[in-house]
Amino acid sequence: MNLIVAVDKNWAIGKENKLLISIPDDMKFFRETTTNNVVVMGKKTLLSFPNGRPLKNRTNIVLTTDNTFKVDGAIVANSIDETLELLKEYKTQNIYVIGGGSIYKQMLPFVDTAYVTYIDYGYSADTYFENLDESDEWKLIEESEEQTYFDVEYYFRKYERV
């Protein structure tokens, strides 16, 4: 299973249910990587999308403890176990965990590849991702050349569980 996330230099991922920065090439990478695949997200992440609608051309699975939550165009799961059971129907290489913070934390033990857009800047944030560089369980296996968006430097990184 895969995970895709954008982090700042402190491994922060968001503030007040919003991304820290929207970088067009990162959005393009996300779109190209997840299209025609399965995306797993929390309810708040889904509701942060335009009109709170599921992502097009993907199988959307929403993990929430809200037993009454329903949304057209998405499959709703109410526990990690239920989510993992649903995911058995798909090839693991076609599954991407896309957030938010609590979903990343709950699903990380089941992920073996992480696509991380590393932004070399520290933002004000309230939500963080585990620092894979400090984990013995993860190894950086690929890193792009330095990218820039205005004055912000960032890198596309790929980590694998060791």
Total domain units: 1
Low-pLDDT residue intervals, each spanning 5 or more residues: none
How can the largest sheet be summarized?
Answer: 9 strands, mixed
* Rg over C-alpha atoms, rounded to the nearest angstrom: 15 Å
Helix content: 10-25%
SSE topology string: EEEHEHEEHEHEEEEE
Seen as an oligomer or otherwise, the chain set is single chain
CATH level 3 topology: Dihydrofolate Reductase, subunit A
Q: Under the CATH scheme, which architecture would be assigned?
A: 3-Layer(aba) Sandwich
Distance between the termini: 14 Å
The tally of beta strands, per DSSP, is 12
What does this protein structure show overall?
The structure is a single chain. This protein has 162 residues and is an alpha/beta fold. The chain has a single domain (2-161), classed as Dihydrofolate Reductase, subunit A (3-Layer(aba) Sandwich). Helices cover 20% and strands 36% of the residues. The chain has helices spanning 24-34, 43-48, 80-87, 101-107; strands at 2-7, 12-15, 18-19, 38-42, 59-63, 74-77, 95-99, 113-119, 127-128, 138-143, 147-149, 152-161. It starts with a strand and ends with a strand. The model has no long low-confidence stretch (mean pLDDT 97).
Descriptive labels:
Dihydrofolate Reductase, subunit A, three-stranded antiparallel sheet, 20% helix, 162 residues
Brief account:
By secondary structure, this protein is of the alpha/beta class.
Q: How is the secondary structure organized here?
A:
Layout: E1 2-7, E2 12-15, E3 18-19, H1 24-34, E4 38-42, H2 43-48, E5 59-63, E6 74-77, H3 80-87, E7 95-99, H4 101-107, E8 113-119, E9 127-128, E10 138-143, E11 147-149, E12 152-161
Parallel strand pairs: 1-7, 1-8, 4-5, 4-7, 5-6
Antiparallel strand pairs: 2-3, 2-9, 8-12, 10-12, 11-12
